[in-house]
Design a protein that fits this description.
Elements lengths: L2 E2 L2 E2 L1 H12 L5 H8 L3 H12 L5 H37 L2
Antiparallel strand pairs: 1-2
Length: 93
């Protein structure tokens, strides 16, 4: 059927998810018709509806990291400026 080395092919998964999401068929009916387990189909539907590794999530994570790094850089620059000023105070008469 749609199995390849005891795993389902992505095209098969996409078709099953499409039947649930686009054709509005019940998960129980689709799983029975395609001879797959309901929990597996539920996982596929959930992953398709709200993918954890989606590009949007990755972009949001990168933006958060970028913001954090910019703040750290700003703090480091402030520290360097303070140290430069303190060196001038002790070195210059």
């Amino acid at each position: 059927m749609g199995k390849s080395n005891n795993r389902y092919e992505e095209e098969f998964k996409a078709g099953a998810v499409s039947l649930v999401l686009e054709k509005k068929q019940a998960i129980s009916k689709v799983s029975k018709d395609l001879d797959i387990s309901e929990p597996a189909l539920r996982r596929w539907v959930k992953a398709a509806a709200d993918p954890e590794d989606s590009a949007t999530k990755k972009i949001a994570d990168l933006e958060a990291e970028n913001k954090k790094l910019k703040k750290e850089l700003e703090n480091a620059k402030d520290t360097v400026n303070i140290l430069k000023k303190s060196v001038r105070i002790f070195v210059e008469p």
